[in-house]
Amino acid sequence: MLQVFVVETIVIAGWRGRYSRSGQFISELGTGQCSALAGCVNLSWLMNASIAVAGLSLAVGAICWARSGALDAVLAALLVVGAAGLVGLAFLPLDSHVVLHSLAANIFFASTPVTLVIASARVVRQTRPSPAGIVALLFGLIASSSWVVHASGLAETNLDDARGLVQRFLVYSTLLSIVALACALYGAARQAQPRIASPPSVYSGQRWPTEQAPQRNDQERR
Fold first, then answer.
1. Which of 71, 45, 69 is CA-nearest to residue 58?
2. Alpha-carbon distance 179 to 73, whole Å?
């Protein structure tokens, strides 16, 4: 997931012309066409590949969490749906498939942040205080709030110069929430594992409890 941030920075560095993180969408980094006003990107394939890897990672992670019992099957299915939307963004660039690209984006944005909020809240409630769970919950809430602003069109009508910034709040918070949730689920699984008591050391002078004392054989008794 975190590789998306690195790849985005690399792709922006190779952008020919002007590119604004606050005023332009992330999807524009995956387009192959050039604009006389905005310029064009040389590494669109790298951006799309990075998004596809992130989507596949989310799908595999959700399936593994469901199979291990760490995550509810319904929540895992919603994350897989969101992952499918993320992969669709990579294979349906904005410049060649506008409608399908928007549909894939809405699938990812509508399902993933809310699912992360629910899953993170369950982890925080069911386990001991989990810093990773709290972080996942906070980023999920930020992503959900950003999705409301993004979907309502406020960023494009009243905040045209900040539409890219609003989308980045949504995307970045979602990706960070996924990473934090993975850490929280791993920590919860570690806590759920039964701890096996180690036998007392012969050098410590400790003795086995009566019910666990090893049986002596016949030769020792004689």
1. 71
2. 19
